[in-house]
Amino acid sequence: MKFISKTLASAAAIMFLAYLLPGIHAGEDFFYAILIALMLSVLNTLVRPVLVFLTLPATIVSMGLFLLVINAAIVLIADKFMDGFTTDSFAWALVFSILLSIINSVVNKAFINPKPKNKLIDNGESKVIIIEKD
């Protein structure tokens, strides 16, 4: 269920960013945005680890900033696979990937994976802290 929620949230963010950024074109259909979100998810699962491994020296030298370039490359790869999803340049792909990551992080933290509520139970003799976790 979380995967579906994350995919729908990501699709909404993609539609919002395609509307907001003039260099990103994702069609006008929410269903197509869901397909783009699924494609980005597949690429992040399959291709991103390979790219991270191959560019490990550059990532270490840049103190992790090269991962932003890898995220933009993933967006450009999705651009090549999806007909209705286009990016005008690498810079737009970079901006899109950064904003999409920020939006997805905020939405996931706020709505999909909210902070667990911890409880303190005091029965007089001892105190117990109950930590809820999924």
Task: Write out key terms for the chains shown.
mainly alpha, 134 residues, two-stranded antiparallel sheet
List the helices and strands and how they pair.
Blueprint: H1 2-20, E1 24-25, H2 30-46, H3 48-54, H4 56-61, H5 66-81, E2 86-87, H6 90-112, E3 119-122, E4 127-130
Antiparallel strand pairs: 1-2, 3-4
Helix pairs in contact: 1-2, 1-6, 2-5, 5-6
Describe the fold and architecture:
By secondary structure, the chain is mainly alpha-helical. The chain has one domain. Helix content is about 65%, strand content about 10%. It is globular. The two termini are about 15 Å apart.
Number of E-state strands: 4
Major β-sheet, in short? 2 strands, antiparallel
SSE topology string: HEHHHHEHEE
Into which percent range does the helicity of residues fall?
55-70%
Distance N terminus to C terminus?
13 Å
What is the count of structural domains?
A: 1
**Strand percent estimate:** 5-15%
Mean pLDDT: 88
- Order of strands side by side in the largest beta sheet? 1-2
Round the Cα radius of gyration to an integer and report it: 19 Å
The helix/strand class is mainly alpha
